[in-house]
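Batch manifest, entry 17 of 40.
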Amino acid sequence: MNILLIGGGGFLGLNLAKTLCGAEHVVHIADLNDNIVFQLIGGDGVLRVHQLDCANVELVLSLIKEFEIECVINLASSLIPSSSYNAFVRERNLGC
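Output type: structure tokens
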């Protein structure tokens, strides 16, 4: 299955990518920070890393179409564990 991990450059995304690749899925990662995920390309089964602003819906939709993505997992977030409830509400209202 072709899978797109949006915001896949974080802790959860990298570990999920390894697990999905181990299950023989083709994984694409879309993230603002591509430095972390370049280590996964090839050997671990990640086909492509796309550096982009995941809030740009048109770009994400074009990736889905171009690479025939069958499953999208959205892990994008600007929050960290110590973020306040107000920060969560702001992010939710932005549609992240």
